[in-house]
């Protein structure tokens, strides 16, 4: 798909040719935020049309805002790694012309997309804020306008004294919390507080004022933005449960073309000690499959070797995922394996903290 999609300038308070007002780009990808009911009574994504007619408060913002709508907006359940690469290319293409980016996206897979973009956009120096809604814009009690307006304010935010970018990270803003992209998890499908920051404090809270947790925001030495171009799709997630059979484990780990698998284990990274289970893992490793051990617990971390039930993992070459989320782990596998590096570098990157996804 071309990255030369038309930009629509929104009429705002900064219209009076205020050349100093922050320039922000909204990229609309779909999701409930822009949905309406079809004839069968199902919610489906629609084109936005004139966004400011549906969200009049947008016109009162002191920013220069442009809107770029994808020609075929989607429910985020249909998002693919190709969409992430495309979105990253779009941001790269417009990077120099805007001070910040807001991605309107469905909530269902927003945490995956935000994590994926965190890896793909290396040396990011500007905010990329994902947001969306639980109730479509234009419907009564919609959270769309509130989420979008604060996301725009965050994308425009600068340090009060130094005037440097306040949040040069990919993040998710939803229902008053700003969450690092690699720490976000969708935890609610019915309430407005749909996201949680897992194993890391929120980067900002929006009350009457915006309170940024500056000490928790990643400020990396400036570098040139690199937009990576490849993700490995030969990956899987294997979630353990008591009673999981050898046939299931073997089937997943021997999928043709499998390069990496997130093992969702119990507690601090524990799994059965049965010989058949260890043999399945060993054989997968011998076929060159990378295994990343992630806990099913929402908080805490993987500590391989703490219990006998994870004591053999290190010798098998299974990588402990520390306190990473499953969303950040599967996208990290896609990203790191997509780099096509040798054994040693791949292991190093999978173990390292790349974008604030783990607390080593
Ligand atoms: N199914 C929707 C989506 O992820 C849910 C939402 O946006 N609230 O696209």
From TrEMBL:
EC number(s) reported in the record: 3.5.1.1
Enzyme class: hydrolase
Tagged with keyword Metal-binding: no
A Pfam family of this chain: Asparaginase
Superkingdom of the organism of origin: Bacteria
Domain Asparaginase/glutaminase C-terminal, first and last residues per copy: 235-349
Domain L-asparaginase N-terminal: 23-215
InterPro entries assigned to the protein according to its UniProt record, in alphabetical order: AsnA_fam, Asp/glu_Ase-like_sf, Asparaginase/glutaminase-like, Asparaginase/glutaminase_AS1, Asparaginase/glutaminase_AS2, Asparaginase_C, L-asparaginase_C, L-asparaginase_I
The keyword DNA damage is assigned to this record: no
Family: Belongs to the asparaginase 1 family.
Entry protein name: asparaginase
Organism: Hymenobacter saemangeumensis
């Amino acid at each position: 798909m071309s990255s030369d999609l038309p930009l629509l300038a929104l009429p705002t308070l900064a219209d009076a040719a205020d050349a100093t007002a922050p320039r922000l780009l909204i990229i609309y990808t779909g999701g409930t935020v822009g949905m309406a009911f079809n004839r069968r009574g199902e919610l489906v994504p629609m084109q936005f049309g004139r966004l400011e007619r549906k969200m009049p408060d947008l016109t009162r913002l002191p920013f220069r805002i442009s809107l770029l709508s994808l020609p075929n907006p989607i429910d985020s359940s249909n998002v693919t790694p190709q969409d992430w690469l495309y979105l990253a290319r779009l941001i790269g293409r417009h990077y120099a012309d805007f001070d910040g980016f807001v991605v309107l996206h469905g909530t269902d897979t927003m945490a995956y997309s935000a994590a994926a973009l965190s890896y793909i956009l290396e040396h990011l120096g500007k905010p990329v804020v994902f947001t969306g809604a639980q109730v479509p814009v234009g419907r009564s009690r919609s959270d769309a306008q509130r989420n979008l307006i604060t996301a725009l304010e965050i994308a425009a935010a600068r340090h009060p004294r130094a005037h440097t970018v306040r949040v040069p990270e990919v993040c998710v803003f939803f229902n008053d919390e700003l969450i690092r992209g690699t720490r976000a998890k969708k935890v609610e499908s019915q309430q407005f507080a749909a996201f949680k920051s897992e194993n890391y404090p929120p980067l900002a809270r929006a009350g009457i004022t915006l309170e940024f947790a500056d000490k928790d925001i990643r400020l990396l030495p400036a570098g040139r933005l690199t937009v990576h171009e490849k993700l490995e799709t030969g990956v899987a997630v294997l979630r353990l449960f008591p009673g999981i059979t050898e046939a299931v484990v073997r089937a997943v780990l021997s999928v043709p073309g499998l390069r990496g698998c997130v093992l969702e284990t119990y507690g601090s990274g524990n799994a059965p000690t049965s010989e058949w289970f260890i043999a399945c893992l060993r054989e997968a490793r011998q076929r060159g499959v990378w295994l990343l051990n992630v806990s099913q617990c929402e908080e805490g971390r993987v500590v391989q070797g703490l219990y006998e039930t994870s004591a053999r993992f290190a010798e098998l070459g299974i990588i402990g995922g520390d306190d990473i989320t499953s969303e950040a782990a599967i996208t990290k596998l896609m990203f790191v394996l997509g780099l096509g590096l040798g054994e040693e570098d791949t292991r190093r990157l999978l173990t390292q903290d790349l974008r604030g996804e783990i607390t080593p």
